[in-house]
């Protein structure tokens, strides 16, 4: 039997210990949910980078990041950046799961393959590991109407193919060489992240439905994002993270229309001057 003073101290310590055990048992892991719906330019990467930065300030290795991804691909450099943003999560040793309910093709799959785990709906479109580039050439049309176009460059390959100039076989060969180089880098990227795939079989540009993509090791499991999130909610708290851009007063009242028109014109001119490679 303990003396009254020590007995009181023992009860106090036991009460504190029981409270700590209860608190620890109530601590649940967290799932941070992101949505990425990609266009040709992967414009959503502007928000994605902010969302990931916010998550990395809070997430721990016992947590998880889930990305609901929907994209048919687009510009190589844009989707390369988007994939690099997801890789920031992996570098912090935080589990990353990508859920594909509809499509993750080309640049979309470039993003998806970064994940620790890829889940796909049975009829989701997966794959299209290839590169495409195209542009019209108006040179003969301009000549027909006696319109001359002068194009001067410093550097043999500053412009390989152009829209208005006369294209050469040398330029075409270099253009194709650039395509092949980007394709090889794309293949290496997928192989490094999905080592179980037969890279030569799946890098032909072909697209598979989710049920067949599973056989090719392009995905890990057939499951919709809804099913997976419901399962995770039984043992983890789910937090949806979204970066919201607050428009300025002129934008809200439509007073920035002229600025947007100028921006559109500049983007169109920029597209005519640059070669765009799409994955």
Describe the structure.
The protein is α/β, with parallel strands linked by helices. It has eleven helices and nine strands. It has a single domain (28-273), classed as 2-enoyl-CoA Hydratase, Chain A, domain 1 (Alpha-Beta Complex), CATH 3.90.226. The strands form two sheets. The protein has a six-stranded parallel sheet, sandwiched between helices. Strands 4-6-7 form a three-stranded mixed sheet. Strand 1, helix 2 (45-56) and strand 2 form a beta-alpha-beta unit. The longest helix has 25 residues, at 169-193. The protein is elongated, with a radius of gyration of 26 Å. The protein starts with a helix and ends in a 6-residue tail after the last helix.
CATH third-tier fold name: 2-enoyl-CoA Hydratase, Chain A, domain 1
What form results from the Cα inertia axes?
A: elongated
Q: Which range does the strand content fall in?
A: 5-15%
Mean pLDDT value:
88
Count of spatially separate domains? 1
Reading side by side through the largest sheet, how are the strands ordered?
Answer: 8-5-3-2-1-9
What multimeric state do the chains show? single chain
- Tally of contiguous helical segments: 11
CATH class annotation: Alpha Beta
Rg of Cα set: 26 Å
CATH architecture: Alpha-Beta Complex
Specify the CATH homologous superfamily. 2-enoyl-CoA Hydratase, Chain A, domain 1
Number of strands: 9
